[in-house]
Design goal:
alpha/beta; Rossmann fold; GMP Synthetase, Chain A, domain 3; six-stranded mixed beta sheet; 22 strands; globular
Length: about 350
């Protein structure tokens, strides 16, 4: 079945207003509910020039731009509800159960917690209260397992903890499971209303394929389009920027097409380098990024809060990936800069160390 991937210039419009950062959670819940019912304006997570959108649009969510320029994604009521209901079906969630809100609401992951709460007829709680379900990013899971006792106890008390927003290290997931946290690794993006593949398995109604090495999706969760452009599609499939494979029915994400750099004529995957080092040194506080370089075109750099030696990193990366993957510079920094959703801000690192 094909799903809409392009917003046509329909004559029927609805008003668009930006979410006010000063709104309380109940106020935002009310605004979301009115948007879904069509009794209030569509909502945007950021201030944008548009004041009206297609009448089908309920939310305009601007991406973080962690691997490119931010894009304003148009999400319909139907897609948002499909996402919410598929997640609840997978979790076997029932009316009256609660989600905790541990993510910012200017991203789809945080907004999803609010939408799921509306669907269950409850109000989301904080880390200080018991919840049946929650959603976090890998950085938060790492912190829970390394000293954040309040967060650890909260996660352990949940029936299920969705972890998305970036690659989840297998060892980190194993540590969490051994510690009693029921972790579910999710894959998705703003264009898919968040996660639609859980622990390698597609949610109800989702189709997945590999097109020229990229993950391709068909699902009712797919966005209508972007504010100023269409989604990349082929024969009705939404073509992501994620490289992947399907092994024994399990979807495996291998990295991003747009996180590759070319240094000295050789391709290097930033995410592959980063994932390997984080696994090798059991820390998420290691980030790979690139800088322009006259000699190499682009040069691979590593930033970390840990006490590591450049020569050790070079040795391990050469052995794993080859000589071309040897970083040229190592920066010891006080703290990793993160974007709102918990993704490392590689642009800031590159600018700070230009």
């Amino acid at each position: 079945m094909a799903y809409p991937t392009v917003v046509m210039d329909y004559a029927v419009k609805r008003k668009l207003r930006s979410i006010d950062p000063s709104w309380s959670t109940p106020q935002l819940l009310d605004a979301l509910l009115l948007s879904l019912k069509g009794e209030g304006p569509a909502l945007s997570t950021t201030d944008i020039a548009a004041t009206e959108v297609d009448s089908r649009v309920a939310l305009v969510v601007t991406t973080s731009g962690s691997t490119g320029n931010p894009k304003s994604v148009l999400l319909s009521k139907q897609s948002l509800l499909a996402s919410t209901r598929a997640t609840h079906k997978y979790l076997k969630a029932t009316s009256g159960q609660r989600w905790s809100l541990l993510l910012p609401t200017n991203h789809i992951a945080g907004l999803n917690v609010l939408l799921r709460s509306i669907e269950l007829g409850t109000t989301p709680v904080t880390v200080d209260s018991h919840a049946d379900y929650t959603a976090i990013v890998p950085t938060q899971l790492h912190r829970a397992l390394n000293g954040d006792t309040k967060l650890f106890n909260h996660l352990k008390g949940c029936t299920a903890v969705l972890v998305g927003g970036g690659p989840l290290d297998k060892e980190l997931k194993h540590q969490a499971v051994v510690a009693g946290i029921n972790v579910i690794a999710t894959y998705g993006m703003t264009e898919t209303c968040g996660g639609l593949i859980y622990d390698g398995q597609t949610l109800d109604g989702v189709q997945v394929a590999i097109h020229d090495g990229r993950i391709a999706l068909k699902a009712p969760q797919i966005a209508l389009g972007y504010l100023d452009s269409e989604l990349p599609t082929e024969d009705g499939w939404f073509i992501t920027n994620d490289l992947g494979q399907i092994v024994d029915g399990q979807v495996e994400v291998l990295g991003r097409v747009d996180d590759q750099i070319i240094s000295g004529g050789e391709k290097i995957s930033i995410s592959a380098i980063e994932s390997f080092l984080q696994h090798e040194f059991k820390s998420t506080e290691i980030v790979a990024f690139s800088k322009p370089d006259k000699e190499w075109g682009e040069t691979l750099c590593i930033a970390t809060t840990a006490d590591l030696e450049l020569s050790l990193l070079q040795s391990k990366l050469k052995e794993k990936f080859g000589a071309h993957a040897s970083p040229k510079q190592l920066y010891k920094i006080a703290a990793i800069p993160y974007l709102g959703i918990g993704k490392p801000d590689r642009k800031k690192l590159a600018n700070d160390h230009a």
